[in-house]
Amino acid sequence: MATDFSITSLPLIDISPLVEKWDDPNMANDEGVAEVVRHLNQACREAGFFYVKGHGIPDTLMKEVRSISHHFFHLPYEEKLKINLSAATGFRGYQRVRVNVTKGVPDIQEAIDCYREMKPGIYGHFGEVMEGCNMWPSDPPRFRVLMEEYVNLCTDLSRKIMRGIALALGESVDAFEGNIAGDPFWVLRIIGYPVVGRVSIDQELGSGDEIGCGAHTDYGLLTLINQDDDITALEVRNSEGEWISAAPVPGTFICNIGDMLKILTNGLYESTVHRVINKSLKYRVCVAYFFEPNFDSTIEPLDSCVEKAGGTKKMQGAVYGKYLVNKVLNNFIM
Q: What mean pLDDT value characterizes the chain?
């Protein structure tokens, strides 16, 4: 097991020892787990993005999830609109190209947005915006069953990776469970990026006409990205402001840190800026799973991370659900 920096500029980590030992009471003392933890710490400190292999989710399932997503996006527009996203649906469902915006600029993408469902009134007034049932298409027929199975597996995998990150920070293995993410919210975005004109991207950035998703950070704790194997479109901005391509590595997930983990670590781990530009001549699918804190969790820097900064609290706290709602309300041109 090793971290491989040679495939791309982003690290590749074999997390199989962590996946195997994640519920072992003595996992922190396992040599294989300790090596994974060291590499996670390095990747989170230096890049905020990394590939994982040995994650335990079958490659056949990852491919099937992308394939069925391609099927949906190639349906007639009228068919896709049967699950149209709106405020009335709790911002769940299908959004056509240019409905999603990043920093006020429409994105060249279409998508289905899904969230963990919640009981009406459970979080009071601030949770009302997100209440609703997910909007699943009837065509393809197995879409809902497949995606719900996939979400469950991604949730389990995220818990395991977060246990490794807890150890990387010198915390107890379950530091991110309980009041932080013991009852995690989740988001699933099934995203399609159409083919756009092959012009000089650097010359055309001001128009936004080629940006599948504008430069942004993710909101939660950890993101798992399942992208088409044959198209390079995801770009990550490094500490020098350069855009680094995150080329597909078959059978892996790309993982990245979200804003809530940045707060918890007092900025020790960065929620790295990234964007998507589909320069290819193929339609691209990406299925992004977002592992989030408990919806009503108040996120503050961990004491140990404040101590590492000499006692200085660098990050402002946030109530995750309120943070999410504020973002969602500004994400769409309705």
A: 92
Give Cα separations from 317 to 85, 303, 307 (angstroms).
Answer: 30, 13, 16
β-partners of residue 299 are 318
pTM of the model: 0.94
Give the three-class secondary structure for 98: coil
Residues 16-60 pLDDT 10s = 999 999 999 999 999 999 999 999 999 999 999 999 999 999 999
- Measured between its terminal Cα atoms, the distance across the chain in Å is 48
Residue pair 286/194 in contact by the 8 Å Cβ criterion: no
115: enclosing H helix or E strand: strand 110-115
HSE-CB of 114 using CA atoms within 13 angstroms: 21
Q: Which residues of 59-82 are buried (b: 16+ CB within 10 A; e: fewer)?
A: eeebeebbebbeebbeeeeeebee
Distance between CA 57 and CA 191 in Å, rounded?
20
Residue range 209-268, pLDDT digits in tens:
578 999 999 999 999 999 999 999 999 998 888 899 999 999 999 999 999 999 999 999
Beta strand ranges found along 183-267 (DSSP E): 186-193, 213-216, 222-227, 234-237, 243-245, 253-257
DSSP assignment of 36-59? HHHHHHHHHHHTSEEEEES-SS-H
What is the C-alpha radius of gyration for the chain, rounded to an integer number of angstroms? 19
Q: By three-state DSSP, how is residue 202 classified?
A: helix
